[in-house]
Amino acid sequence: MDATEAVESIQREMTAFARRARASAGRMHPELSLVSYTLLGHLEERDGCRATDLAAHYALDKSTVSRQVAALERAALVERRQDPDDHRVQVLHLTEAGRAILAQVTESRRAAFQERLADWPEEDLVRFAGYLVRYNAPGTDRP
Amino acid sequence: MDATEAVESIQREMTAFARRARASAGRMHPELSLVSYTLLGHLEERDGCRATDLAAHYALDKSTVSRQVAALERAALVERRQDPDDHRVQVLHLTEAGRAILAQVTESRRAAFQERLADWPEEDLVRFAGYLVRYNAPGTDRP
DNA sequence: CAGTTCTGGTTGTATAGTACAACTTGAAGT
DNA sequence: ACTTCAAGTTGTACTATACAACCAGAACTG
Questions:
Q1: Do A142 and B7 touch (CB under 8 A)?
Q2: Domain boundaries in chain B?
Q3: pLDDT one-digit tens code per residue, A59-82
Q4: CATH number, domain B3-136
């Protein structure tokens, strides 16, 4: 396999994966869509952030984030805290329930991935992870 | 990074990728969504097939496929041929226009991937491609 | 400091993709 | 012949999304 073939293969495989991911994520965790899951994950990781940050980070429109957050708040998974320094800003935080459900879904996803990757040597796992990070890193756009 | 961390990282990165793929595919080729592209690709590869086969292969509802195909037919990218042996069945085929646009989008996607991966050493490309194939191979379901 | 521009966020509107259920038509099995 | 199965279509509903118009607060500038 040369470089050109490899690029074509990467393209095909990434696309194949993308096509399936959302639907199967939905089937696995009907209670938390892929988007919501991602946003909650970000909140956990950053220990709270602004809606604008989420939009920028995930290349989503601010209106999309606004509605997602509204739904998450309705479900009592996140809460908004007014920033005292800037009254336009609402800092989003996970609630206890949010943290719990995030942990649960993460665990179940982790188990699925783990199972799928069970027979991979550690060396390959580490390299694969590195490649993905590197692949995803550059822009925020385009697959 | 140990194996567990790597698995978590793979999970996160694959998810991140999946989230963006559809949208950016749409931005790149407004004329052909990721789904349509995939379906056309399948038709090319198999040199025609039934709608039911597409549904089964991509885990889509038959109604979804029906509408997708209807749109593709409206756009004159595919045509239906009654199966003479079974009058329920319509065998789908690419039209010339369908073949052309598929080729064009494939090329433009290839270029985008190529650009993104331009500065990777060939060795890494080949290994990455191998990992993806291996990752995607097992089932047809779940990320 | 007053007016302008910028930034964070919400709401209205539209679209795509999807599923599920009900239905139609043709094929197969008993 | 009657029932059951399979392929597709259509009606309906929901989710994720974008874009545009808007509001409110902050920052900049003459």
A1: no
A2: 3-136
A3: 899 999 999 999 999 999 999 999
A4: 1.10.10.10
